[in-house]
Design goal:
With about 300 residues, this protein is an alpha+beta fold. It contains eight helices and 19 strands. The chain folds into three domains: about 80 residues, Uridine Diphospho-n-acetylenolpyruvylglucosamine Reductase, domain 2; about 110 residues, 2-Layer Sandwich (Uridine Diphospho-n-acetylenolpyruvylglucosamine Reductase, domain 3); about 80 residues, Alpha-Beta Complex (Uridine Diphospho-n-acetylenolpyruvylglucosamine Reductase, domain 1). Strands 6-7-13-11-12 form a five-stranded antiparallel beta sheet. This is UDP-N-acetylenolpyruvoylglucosamine reductase.
Length: about 300
């Protein structure tokens, strides 16, 4: 056993450290190479200790959510990759909802419904984790995280814990200062309101139906690939560029929703990324609009 693996297993429970893990098993696109070391802490203290260990040993450190808005390159990720899947508790306290970062934002919205709280209905179809939702100020159907977030607890890149207010995060359209500051979200508190459970459920049912009928959920994908360009809709521009069904290798522009690229036939990350770039180039040539990626791309080429 190598020294790094041995020391990580001393910090965490043995079952929560793996070497050379295939990251495609942790992404919605089913793409990506291996992580040198993959860790799943069981406590905030373990998170702090892993960060400090990485710093002390000059090891690259990458935070990985549930991989819904992410493409990992075929060469994988060096150093330590941390996943907070174990932090999945969601609870309510009056009109506040407290969710740990590894919980799915969908599950947080369902917990709000159970407690007859309104404000998170928009998130009932967003596939990401709570931490990822804060990271990119996730939104759908007219709502976004900044509308209801009150505060968050984060770990800094030095391993310190901070409690921050929503206003401290510079939340804007699909962005925040979390990546720039190297914060790792550990939990979030949402300020919601008492609502009519039948009305809340009706909204969630309607949004779920829209998602299931309009999005290509039958294939692996990263979700919506591009941000909405001012004055346009990315999907419409791609559709009008006659790119639906265009494929590179196993990656294809969805015939169901042009804003999605699906992994239809064992695509590589390189193929998927090449198709994204082809779509950007084509739309730019036809309409003069530069599509900006919403999806993040990390890792190394093979």
């Amino acid at each position: 056993m190598d020294a790094i693996l041995k020391q990580l297993r001393e910090i965490l429970k043995e079952g929560n450290v793996e070497k050379d893990l295939e990251l495609k098993t942790h992404t919605y696109t089913h793409l990506g190479g291996k992580a040198d070391y993959f860790v799943m802490p069981g406590s905030y203290e373990e998170v702090q200790q892993v960060i400090q260990f990485a710093n002390k040993n000059n090891l690259p450190f990458t935070m990985l959510g549930n991989g819904s808005n992410l493409i990992i390159k075929d060469g994988g990720i060096r150093g330590i990759v941390m996943n907070l899947h174990n932090f999945n508790k969601v609870m309510t306290d009056g009109t506040k909802l407290i969710a740990q970062s590894g919980a799915r934002i969908i599950d947080a919205s369902r917990k709000a419904l159970e407690a007859e709280l309104t404000g998170l209905e928009f998130a009932c179809g967003i596939p990401g984790s709570v931490g990822g939702a804060l990271f990119m100020n996730a939104g759908a159907y007219g709502g976004e995280i900044k509308d209801c977030l009150e505060s968050t607890i984060v770990a800094t890149k030095d391993g310190e814990l901070l409690e921050l207010q929503a206003a401290d995060l510079d939340l804007d359209y699909r962005t925040s200062n979390i990546p720039d500051n190297g914060y790792i979200v550990l939990e979030a508190t949402f300020a919601l309101k008492q609502g009519d459970p039948a009305g809340i459920k009706a909204v969630m049912d309607d949004l779920t139906e829209k998602r299931e009928t309009k999005q290509p959920l039958e294939y692996p994908s990263c979700g919506s690939v591009f941000k909405r360009p001012p004055g346009y809709f990315a999907g419409k521009l791609i559709q009008d560029s006659e790119l639906q069904g265009k494929s590179i290798g196993g990656a294809e522009v969805s015939t169901k929703h042009a804003g999605f690229i699906v992994n239809k036939n064992d695509a590589t990350a390189a193929e998927y990324i090449a198709l994204i770039e082809f779509v950007q180039k084509t739309v730019k040539e036809k309409f003069g609009v530069q599509l900006e990626r919403e999806v993040r791309i990390i890792g190394e080429d093979k």
